[in-house]
Design a protein that fits this description.
It comes from Zostera marina (Eelgrass). It is found in: Cytoplasm; Nucleus. InterPro entries: WPP1/2/3 (IPR044692), WPP_dom (IPR025265), WPP_sf (IPR038214). The longest helix has about 50 residues, at about 125-175. The chain contains 7 helices and no strands. The model has no long low-confidence stretch (mean pLDDT about 75). It is an all-alpha fold and about 180 residues long. About 15% of the residues are buried. The protein has helices at about 10-35, 40-45, 60-75, 75-80, 85-110, 115-120, 125-175. The protein has a domain at about 60-145: WPP domain (Serum Albumin, Chain A, Domain 1).
């Protein structure tokens, strides 16, 4: 049998394989020509934009509030040890905690304490740390006080029911709770 010529499909595959790198180079060169002037290499070498982390944006502050609500309303080490709050109560508490922490941190910046000790070259990292610590401390203080109030209320309810039971028992037997009649 005579040698068969390569099929048309095999020939096309070889041609495509050879032509692809050239086509890629052409498309890359064409796309480079169409870049807007703001994205050229010269514009990319300009100094970077300064980003300030203090004060936080309203979006960031809202995210802190949302996270606080989540921490106060869902089972966690904190809520298992102290108390789980209702969603409405947690939202009110979270807004108060965040606002107080923000005011305290802002006052420290305005007072110059942070500026002198760290310098504002640190782009607010020190003040952000103060803010975060205040949020955490206030959240812990809140759940501790809520747990203490709940325990006190439970104790008072238990004592009241004990007194009621004693009073009821005394009136059934005809004795006075305060002593003999």
């Amino acid at each position: 049998m005579a040698e068969q010529e390569p099929s048309i499909a095999a020939t096309e595959e070889r041609q495509i394989g050879v032509d692809e790198p050239e086509q890629e180079q052409e498309s890359t060169a064409a796309s480079a020509k169409t870049l807007p002037p703001s994205l050229t290499t010269a514009s990319l070498s300009s100094p970077p934009v300064s980003i300030s982390i203090w004060p936080p944006t309203q979006r960031t502050r809202d995210a802190v509030i949302d996270r606080l609500v989540e921490n106060l309303t869902t089972p966690s080490v904190l809520t298992k040890r102290y108390v789980v709050l209702s969603s409405d109560e947690a939202t009110d508490v979270a807004r108060r905690i965040e606002e107080e922490a923000f005011v305290v941190a802002s006052a420290e910046v305005k007072g110059g304490e942070v500026e002198e000790s760290v310098g504002m070259d640190s782009e607010g990292f020190a003040i952000l740390q103060i803010y975060s610590q205040n949020v955490s401390k206030r959240m812990l203080d809140t759940v501790k006080s809520k747990a203490a109030a709940a325990a006190a209320a439970a104790t008072a309810t238990t004592e009241e029911s004990d007194v009621s039971e004693i009073s009821a028992a005394g009136s059934v037997t005809g004795e006075s709770v305060g002593g003999n009649v």
